[in-house]
Structures
1.
Amino acid sequence: MAAEAKQSSYDGSHVENFEFYLQCSGEHESILHFLMKHLPEEFERIGADKSGLAVLGVGSGGGEVDVQMLSLMQSTLSALPITADIVEGSTELVAKFKGLVTKTDHLQKIPFTWHTMLSEEYMQKTKGRGDVKTFDFIHMIQMLYYVDDLTETIKFYHSLLNKNGRLMIIIESANSGWDTLWRTFSKELCNEILPVYRSSSDVLASLKSLGLKYEEHFIPNTFDITECFDPNSKTGQHLISFMTGRENFYQSFTPRVRADILNVLRSKCSTEKEGKVSFNSEMRCVFVYA
Ligand SMILES: C[S@@+](CC[C@H](N)C(=O)[O-])C[C@H]1O[C@@H](n2cnc3c(N)ncnc32)[C@H](O)[C@@H]1O
């Protein structure tokens, strides 16, 4: 019997939890604020002397950030036709992304090719082929935590870049709240979906080992986790469950581990002012040169 294809963990309740997290964290808003400022210049440079642009999104989720970037690319380089390929492991999120495209009139001009599979399968299928499609702009936003081999993945997607192209990686910063939380409790939190926790320092180490040229930017973000310390708050419990990668934080850990996690969350991952606990979820954006 053929081995069952590995699935993305982003289906069912995990999608709901992720969407809840996006609402609480302001993560997309911070990413978009950064991108709207920096991408027009990148797109102008990538598009110079080209007759069309090919975009590849890897781990694009429900496409909320992708549709904004593609719209920005259309308005910045209005004369250039654009194609979009999407590699995304979750069928549920691909369906959401397709729904978003259908609702957005100006995106009807862009032909989309949907690769509903994990990056590992896309790499495997593409590697053996002679007519490999190459791209001008490849992005991987908040997804490199989940790939099997970080350096191989970066090396592969970098090899698909056209002249003057860019690979854009967005990932949590080294020493951010996420990094501190997951590295401190790696024994308790890491599992088969996330066997190790990665942050920007791992990405930079891979880029250095590959000898690739890049530039790095900060994307500041914080969000309110005060309610996570109230066991009677549904919002707080939902949020802390997502942050610790569990369905139910209170049922998943011993009282001792729960207390330790709450203590580190408050004292090492956040700042506290007038009773409000703000979690540091700073991200990095790395533009890797072709
Ligand atoms: C944290 S979400 C980020 C989604 C989107 N980029 C965003 O910022 O909203 C991670 C995404 O990566 C996808 N994913 C996880 N492992 C993957 C893999 N090995 N290959 C491709 N996509 C993957 C998940 O299905 C999910 O959509």
2.
Amino acid sequence: MSQSFHLFQLQKIDTQLDQGAARVNEISAKIETDRRVQDQQQVVDNASKVLASAQAQLKKIEQDADTRRIKLEQCEASLYGGKVKIPKELQDLQNEAAAIKRSISTLEDQQLEAMISVEDAQAQLNVAQKHLAILQAEVTHENAVLAGESSALKALMDRLKVEHQAVLGQIDQNFYDEYERLRKNKRGIAVASLTDNACSACGTVLTPADRQAARSPTILFHCPSCGRFIYAG
Ligand SMILES: [Zn+2]
């Protein structure tokens, strides 16, 4: 087999290795940068804080109302206990009881609103938690599929590396050095094929004399335009 054939084989293997490595990197970047679960966890944490604050507000209102109910009982006990007999003092106690009742009534309205706020916050938290569970399941599944693809690619690449070594053994060192240099400078493609009388990499149409030279089993032909090796088959 000619050197151009072996170089072409090597190019096919190395192109597959390049594509495999690029996809493996893409997969790990995709898994690492996926913030969907963390973002939704943040939504859940925020909803929990809103709920805790609504519950604390409700509790405070309930405690205030309880304190005032005790105060009202004490006030009414004095009022109806028979110990206070002076009309002015009785009048003061009546006024005080009325004021406490009004403030209890206000607090009861606030309590109702606070209870609705707690229910709303609880509902929001439930929705957020449900969404989080769905996302976690989705992401776990997607990552398992990606990890499977990645390990299959790595296994393929291990086999390709063995093939690379085998083909390398068939290539003269000076051609391989040139191959590597071209790979570096020509975006990974050192060997082009002859397709429809043109270089498959840059599209330059070869003259009949060039095509004949490219088909020669003894010489290595370079594309006159891009400089890559040409494998004519
Ligand atoms: Zn070319």
3.
Amino acid sequence: MQVIKLQNSPYDANAYLVDGRILVDVGMDAHAIISQLENIIEPGKLETIVLTHCHYDHSGGAAQVAAAFGAKIAIHRDDVSLLNNARGSASLLFGMKAPSIVPDILLSGGETFGELEVIHTPGHTPGGICLYSARAKALFSGDTVFPDGSFGRTDLAGGNATKLVESIRKLMLLDVSVMYPGHEDIVNRDANEQIRMSLMMASQYS
Ligand SMILES: [Zn+2]
Ligand SMILES: [Zn+2]
């Protein structure tokens, strides 16, 4: 599995291009993402934009990038009602009005995109997902878990601390060698241990 972390601003969520045809999250700056993708892939080769959840820092540029490449947008069905809502998408935190994103694929969990499997991990938002490749032992963790025992906040619309702990417990069942979080740096070592720390820390706050 080939993963390229695209460049964007520190306010943006991480955007990862997987095997040249799947984009995991977009960030807010569609122009930055489009110009990089144009240098890496042929037009029409981007198949799917998978949003880990509805928040604007992950989804803000999705409609423009999808239009530029003819890609489909996938998001969990439980986050759809929040996606284009100023409070639900937290766009107001970024001083922006809510986007207008029309999802093409509504997820429930268990779907696959290439070798990535969708795992429903509610808690940060109701329809938060992670993506896991068993072959590559790679986890795209969205805003569910971050490096060094950090975890997603549960005080925004639809957040639920109890569900977040249950979701992190699900991630504990996976063997993870590389973790690609929604923010901060890629984790190349001790990923299982860092997820275990996140579970411990999140459990204390639920
Ligand atoms: Zn985020
Ligand atoms: Zn978020």
4.
Amino acid sequence: MSAAPDSQVLPYPPLNLLESASLFLDFDGTLVDIADRPDAVVVDQALNSLLADLARRHDNCIALISGRSIAQLDALIGPIARNIALSGSHGSEYRWNGTLAHPVRPASLEQVERVMRDAATGHPGSLVETKSFGVALHYRLAPEFESEARALAARLAGQFDLALQEGKMMVELRVPGSDKGVAVTTMMRRREMAGTRPVFIGDDVTDEEGFEAARTFGGTGILVGPPRETAASYRLPDPAAVRHWLAGESQ
Ligand SMILES: [Mg+2]
């Protein structure tokens, strides 16, 4: 990971960054606050309106780039999800103008899920999440499980040749060969994105590849949350500030 030289004091992003930009937006922790359970996230009407407005202002050059599956994003966001480009499952699947592209789900994920569920039984509050192209083990409500959960995931990744993805209080095994940088690169090669400058906004370590890919295409990254080593060039403190900035309102 390459760090911006002044990663500890990243500035508030200037509003003119939005001009001629294509927007690549993470979802959890970026547009909505992270909930204790992934299914407890709430999408309000204001977010729906903001996404519709952004799609119009940016000539549909807007994409959600999430670790969630496209099916989960559809369920959470509702009809507006049909109007924006989506990349789900950490760059494994895509939907653009109604056309869905996705890999085959490896059968090994079912074995992995059984092992994770067995391990989670001894840790009340932990949660195994079946995803379209992965399995996630959440320990936000069972923090004592963290080191065991991460070691288990690392072992299973090696055993079944799956990609290991660590996130905020969770670890996930998924189809290898993709990440959020791959998602940005894939989408930036679309004709519709030609001439745009990608701005990637995200909060998690999984968003770093997205920041780096945005830079490769002459764009930039905006980190959401507390300062840390990052490839982003700007920072916003929380999802409320992201929405405020995206709405074109100054600091
Ligand atoms: Mg996030």
